[in-house]
Design goal:
Helices cover 44% and strands 14% of the residues.
Length: 628
Amino acid sequence: MTGQSPSPWASSQGATKPADSDGPTPRVVVFVAGARARVEAAICEARKVYGGRHLICICEPEHRAWLTESPGETVLTVEQPFNPFGRRAAALLKGLNPWPVEACVIVVADIGLESLRFRLFALRVRTSRFVFLPVGISGQPEALGRSSFAIHTAGTPFFRVLRKCRPRKVTRAVVVRFVAWLSPLDQPLAVGLALLARALTWWRPHRTHEGKEIVHIIPSVGMGGAQRQLLLLLKNRSPAYNHRVVVIFSGDAFFAPEMEDARVPISYVRSEVVRHRSEPPPGRQPMLAAFWSVLALAGDSFPVCREIVKLTSHLRALDPRPDIVHCWLLFANLVGSIAARLVRVPLVMTSIRNIQSQVAYNYYHDPRWQRALERATVPLVTAIIANSSSVALDYRTFAAAPAEKVLTIPNGVEVEAFRPLTPEEREALRRDLGLTRGDLVVGTVARLAKEKDFETFLRAVGLARRRLPSLRVVIAGEGPLRAELEAFAASHELTGVVQFLGARKDVAALIQCYDAFLLTSIIEGMPNAVMESQLLGVPVVATKAGGTVDLIRDGETGLLAPIGDWQAVATAIFRLFTEDGLRARISRAGRDQILNGYTVEQLVARTEEVYRALLSGKDGREAASCAG
């Protein structure tokens, strides 16, 4: 195929209308430049993102030699060097004009002239969406609007000159230092945005009519306790409200399939799949558009402000508009409450799932600013949901939150989903795990992260095995410390004793294989795994972290040990397996406790009572009484 052949346009015309479509299939124009590996990665991503769209790849002769043309795709070759304002460019534009162009995809090669020529030509195409691929190299998974892309293109010659004039290492050092200098301004600016959002709330009267649009904002839908509670709420919701989920980061989507099965729409702020524009809606002031573009370019220096701005744009584009925004987890609480108020959402709820005062164990950009941001966002929030009384008390003190705003709604367990295994099924699953009838199995389900304090866990197990040599350990969960913990277990002669299973979806069956459940966290909200173990009749040994003490009365519904005291944990394990009747008493009491106060039906009823109270104009104190 050559640059003069008209056949690509003819072939692309033949596949423009799907059988169920009233118009032509939108085109996606991919400008190919750079190394083969990058080009192939970018085209693979483009095919995933724009499935069902007709891809038109514009490439140089060197790429045409190996670039394959799949069904529903067209490959066009241009001269080298390509003139973005020449005759061939005019012919390309004329061929594109009859078809709607959904986006222009730029393969990130370098900042050379060929890339610049393609970018200049892309600005001549009738589209408002520009995407850099592959994401792993560009670092920009979201689409840019025309103004943002134009500024990006204008900067390309500058950086090229900079590279020519200075050694690459010097240029990189200057850029890194400049970014580092700007970064400390990020969270003070976020506090400023919170104050601006607060001022906006004074100008809008409180809505008192009954609404039904609930939007949940959460950092990710990966494996985690808060994500599981949100899933349970959505799966067991009443038809009185319409729920949607907005996910800030799209990397881990462990629970996404189950949420989709529950017929709850999910959108990802940072994903191209959402296909929302990254610039303000038409008609906005030019200064706001310029600010938006500059912020997109400086996003790495302002990560918190960047997410606030992007989430603001995302919420503004939602149709219908939310009546309540319900935020889950620390980062979503901060950026979500600010963004919601900036777009004038009338009611905002946050969900506190952990001990916030332990800033060293929270996932946050700079813990030094966490308290200031928490205190700045509390006035933006209509109600604050804590999942345990310990978490509620900690947050009232840490964030100076008014007592009437902070409500306690404990986590819930979906009793019907936890089918007891038959003795034969339990024995078979234990065999699959390499366990024998004589093994005493201590297990857990937890994220492999520092706040779970697995070093105390493994030290305690090692000590307990001296008196209980048949003790075996099963750990289900994934996290950043897995490799480190596997090495730690090996160094403490626990190889072959401890199994790291990774993320599992058969948690209910797995827990029933345990003879005891062990949790050695430093901080906790209200641990779901402890509740599930109690429901299934598996006795729990845990440290006195956060809301764990709300679930465990020492010696009655479980055994408690001081945080970080591995010797006390080992003693509790030994006591559990050797004291007559203790395991049976704890199992019965723990199960009764869950059935009487911690079911998913109670979680849903309490949460929806808060929705109902807030939408009818009641304040936090009245909403708390409704939640029971």
